[in-house]
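Sanity check

After download, print the first record. It should look like this:
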Amino acid sequence: MSTWLASALQNERWAVGDQIWSRDPATGAFDLADYKGLGAPPPACNPFDLAPLVGARVSIESAAGVAGPVALYPGAFRFSPATGKALPEPAAIEAEAWLPPFGADGAAGDTPQGLRLTATHLALRPTLSAESPPDRQIAMPPAGNCHFLVGAFSTCDSRLLAIDASQGLLYHWLPNSERWQALRPSGTQAPAPSSLADEAWGLAAQDPQRSARVFLPTDAGLAIVFVNLIARTCEVRSVGTRCLGAPVLWQGRVHVPMLEEDGTLGVHALDPDGSELHRIDGPTLDAADAGWLRPLADPHRIVWMAPAGQLVVSRGGDADASGAAFLPWPAGITPRLDLGSPYLSRNGNLWQQCVRQEDGQTEVVFVQLGLAEPEIRPASSPRLSTGAACFQLDTRLRLAPWFEPDDCRAPEADEVIVPLLESTSASTVLCARIPHTRPLDSLLASTETCTATFELHGGEHDVQFWMARMSRPWAARPFVYAGHLYLYHPDRRRLPGWRIEP
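Expected structure tokens:
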């Protein structure tokens, strides 16, 4: 008898595709017990936040015309088991992905990684003005300096994550509750902080839609982070030692420079499905603070740049072999790493903007990257670049003849236009227009608050869509989530967003 009672009091388990649901026989209520092996959601989870992640249906059950409790049912159910009424269709989801900082898709392919280029469509309605209010605003994350990642991570819905790398914190935006939820560590290890500067930090991900793993650089090694949006947790496994630069997915493996036990620098590679690091053959380099920027990568090589030179990993004769090399900048050459991305010429070569001092003369030049004996070409003036588009700083200066004129634009003499991000699919460039009455070096070094106008150049119309006061407007971080272009800046209290037009 007691055995029968114990069995009768147990919840029923329903296997529905890749999900397991629990049904309370006393009330008829359904609860998600497991989704694709990711476990159950936390107690008191808002069903409207959970349902899109698993393709479930939400119904407000009612009796005698009085609204009752919110009920959650598997997506395969077309009618409510309690009332027999038709259930609303699961929310229609549009897959989105955004890898910080510039929205790359995580695979080099034919387009170099690491430039300020995104394949995401960027177009805003032409009726916007600098005084127009944002179409949407969301709360700022609790942490103070964030990068933003968008992916489904093996669920049905693309979600927004905020990463504070300096503190090792991850937050998940709950769109219905309109609040941030910290992803708590599911094991004994939490993400370690990273001391990489903003211009050096980046992450690697194989497929943020179908895979739950991302690879973060930390001071305790390369963190393999398993994001679980169902349980709202993250499982962390670290390999190697302190990361001295950002990782990049190249030739099917994650590559990252690390601090060796003897104090030198070494580049290591990791199979995304494994946990064993493989050191890339290369020179012994002093691992003193070199200030490596986030990497560039194309089908032939990876390049981490620093004031002293380039750390290059390139393919060898064997398709599976690669080697590392350090290439100092040519004599008399100083790179201008603060002027945006290197320039991508139409033949696929990458050029870094530098200053050459020779015979007492100083001139701006472009140095081809990744070569021990690079070609050097003169330029008439400094330019601010996204990679494909470049902007002159003075209308009176002519373009060097080897630059494509259609790729360069010039502001008025008393202001500077800083390109932040370029959309290759829409042929548009997101820019910040900043008052400029002093030398460029002084402007870039300043932390004074100024009024900046944000604009989208290209398409049929250039659109000014936001004016705001902030320090270092060029440090604003754009990202795309839920069909909106957002701009993050630590000085602001909210995250403003503008609807992207088709």
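If your output differs, re-run the checksum step. Summary of this record's structure: Residues 2-9 form the longest helix (8 residues).
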